[in-house]
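Sequence in, structure out.
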Amino acid sequence: MKMKKYIIWTSLVTVFTFGLSSCADFLDELPDNRTELNPDNVGKILVSAYPTTAICEIGEVSSDNTDAYPNNFSSDRLLEDLYKWESTAEQDQDSPAALWESCYIAISACNQALKAVEDAGNPVSLNAVKGEALVCRAYAHFLLANIFCKAYGTTAKTDLGIPYMKDIETTVSPNYERGTLEVVYKNIESDLLAGVELISDNVYSVPKYHFTKKAAYALAARFYLYYVQPDKSNYDNVIKYADKVLGNNPSTLVRDWASLGELDLDKDILPNSYVSADNNANLLLVSTNSYWGFNVDPYGRGERYAHGPLVAVETCRSNGPWGNYSPAKESNVYYMFPWSNSSSLPTKVMLRKVAEYQEVVDPVAGTINGHIINAAFTTDETLLCRAEAYIMKGAGFYPQAIADLNVWQSAYTRSTTLLTVDAINNYYGNMGYYKPLEPTVKKELHPDFSIADATQENLIHCVLHARRILTLHEGLRWFDIKRYGIVVYRRFISNSGTVSVTDELKADDPRRAIQIPSDVISAGMKPNPRN
């Protein structure tokens, strides 16, 4: 199965290899009936300013949310390469190559729009277009940096970045340099801050598929959480922007998990509701080209490398300070009840959040294209970003962190016992650290920033635990693994159920930065280092 390209643009790979003959050649492929951009139609190009490849499969399969099963189960080469942290030659949707191309296509759309606004004299009437383009450009580079680079830290001044594209290319065979991760983050911040205040929700016909004010603030909150500063000033910015999303009463803005959990696990009723544009918890929805819905949901595909029963005891079947998982839906602490494929050796345990939308390409041949809707930003995840920021600011801010964690707990679980610092500290403090054959939800942390003491560490374990459950199947766990230097072990579960360890991704393993596409390397760009 191969995904059709709906918008054929020159990607960075192509630019790097062949160059662009002229600006006119590029404009010939714009998704606006090949008309010239002008102040009246420039906003139309921004429908292509959002990457059409999701991070879900890359992030989930690379993370500790995936185990390996025998080869009598279905898989494909991309899943295997991602699971083994190997460079992959696969270029179809969900691949690193597809993400790279998709992001730079989106960035090109942003640059075209910004150039048109500049040529028009930057009129106030185009402020909303300019704002959306700047925020989209920041977002696409942010995705690239977090997949293809190391986590931001004290070595960012020398760590490899990714090319930050601000201009329309008009030369043949231009030379692109990766620069440093620090420069990339500074550019992201500049675009984000310049764009966020210009955005206007009033110009969108379907706001949830664009960066509204709140969606842009949610991006800013996540960005500053990752953009760790020595003086911890980034955490103030996380709180500042999360406040703009959540207001004074976040409990009214998070998802109604109780109602969602009552929906039928069969069909796509539940996942359709999860990504509904009418749900106030969804801040940004992105339609992407993806087969992740096939791989993660109850289909006979993607079973060899999957989120199965063993890893589920750390996620959607885990116990927590909020209560215990139960195989009986009515007594389960979580409103969201997991579903497992039925076989003698179950390999998939899933929460119904990702629906596969099929586009029939050839009904005779039976070929289809796959699509998913990705909830890229939600109020729930922004809430946990703020909780983490409060924790990292120190003991004086723990009450605010606990308040946010209780909002999450009250929405996501049936627990009626409020969390406290002591309850969390005792729960995780009395728990042993994870071992691959004796798994727990508490994993040793090796971040590039300091953790004050055991209490702060245990509060971090709590927020990481909550986020891992909340964002299961969405790829964000991979970023937490990178940020906190969490070691990932590869486990193989045999047909008899025995477990063996096959690999280990240590805190300093360079494979944490996914390798850039082979075509780009062949064209001369410096690859990520490997041992």
